[in-house]
Amino acid sequence: MSAPSDPLRILCKQNLAVEVLRNTGTVRVAALGYSMLPTLWPGEILTVETRSLGEIQRGDVVLFAREGRFFIHRCLGQVKTSSQAQLITRGDAMPDRDSPVSPDELLGKVTSVERRSGEVPVPACTLLRRGTGLLLAYSSRMRSLALRCNARRRHEVHSELPETEPDQVLVR
Predict the structure, then answer these.
(1) Which of 42, 67, 80, 141 is most buried, taking the most CB atoms under 10 A from its CB?
(2) How far apart are CA 45 and CA 54, in angstroms?
(3) Maximum CA pair distance of the chain?
(4) Which domains does the chain have, with CATH numbers?
């Protein structure tokens, strides 16, 4: 039996999620990383709907696949290269922008987040939220404290979540 973090198992789950998204137009995934703190927290269930690059607006949170991994980051805008338009994205808690996202990498837009109060739209990236995100990105101590407080508030045991990297996404 393989471990939950087995790369082959993760790849199979991601491929299944892509197939579900392409066939039904909607998939639900769990965020595991901290690149979108405090907008999105590990363990929150996100609803993703298929969208083309032309339908994505500045401020939308998108799901894209790159190098065998899923990323959920906010769209900062679009750039037009000689051959195609691409998205510029960045995690709310990340200091740097990602490499441009091509239409082939884009999987969809995160349309809602499941919270204790029910499903809510994805919160906007305010100046306060961005500043908090950067504080959490640069201070592992503050990030650890915030993650523990959030887990306690959600009545979850933080140790049940696997150890993650900033941009991990779990497909359940």
Answers:
(1) 42
(2) 25
(3) 50
(4) 7-170 (2.10.109.10)
